[in-house]
## 1
Amino acid sequence: MYRLGVVCSKINCEKSVLPDEFVSDVITHMNSDHADSLRDYAVAFGGQNNPEHVELIKIDQTQMQLLCRSAGEVVEISVPLLSAVKRPEQLRGMLVAMAKRAREEISRGQ
């Protein structure tokens, strides 16, 4: 659940370690330059079969929200990060590691 820059769960409620402007830049960059990685995340970690289009719509220190379009249907899925990031500069490495792992998972499944 999101509220005014605060990430809440049933267990705890804490301020996001990722500033809003940083998150906005990451979302824009991923959607513009890494559509292949977003698709791989959806397939490997989100259980989607051959999505036609995947868009990153939210990301925080523990998960990302992807909007997947396939066969005329649109679904929003939540993909947990491999581990929580504690600082903004850790996010890039996390996304690269997840892209690599997603490609490996997809290759194994073929």
## 2
Amino acid sequence: MSASEATNIEATVYVRLLEEGTDVWRPVRATVLPDGTFELQRPVDYDPELESWEFPPEARVICAERRFADGDKGLAAIARAASADLPPSAGQG
């Protein structure tokens, strides 16, 4: 199984919203991949004109635990995952 193949495990990952003037994090469903990275799912109500995400839907990201301003902890997307193991045509359209 390659790192790009999805598992049936899902998690909530928080993605930073850009251009908000303060720290705002959007909870997003994500699929856990075998290599420990996450693939962000596209919410039904996603509108790039209304929200500018640091990492777009369907991106593969690396996450780390973060404590948010309200004191809650969660997995935050901190970087785009390397795509060295993806086929050359992946992500091209």
## 3
Amino acid sequence: MLIYGQRIKELRKERGISMMALAGAIGVSDTAVCKWENQTSEPKLSYIIRLAEFFNCSADYIIGRSDDLGAYVGQDDLTAEEKQLLSSFRTLDDKMRGLVTQTVKMIKNK
């Protein structure tokens, strides 16, 4: 089920901005924003990224792959150590990723 239109509209309304204001902020027409919200047109990847940056959420949230609003994190926002950790994490199999995730959550909750 596609929900990007709902998400864009909700994020926009939560911030109390018009379609025209959102369009101006990300460099598209207000017609484009209207079409996205009504799901008669899909935003290109470059606009999804701009939306995520503008709303400070993840692109996955906008396109409905996650219900966690998250925050937009670009590679430029990561330190060298964070990039190395992320790179190493991505090489792990699902079982090991789960163990690492559980461990981090336990440490965080202490």
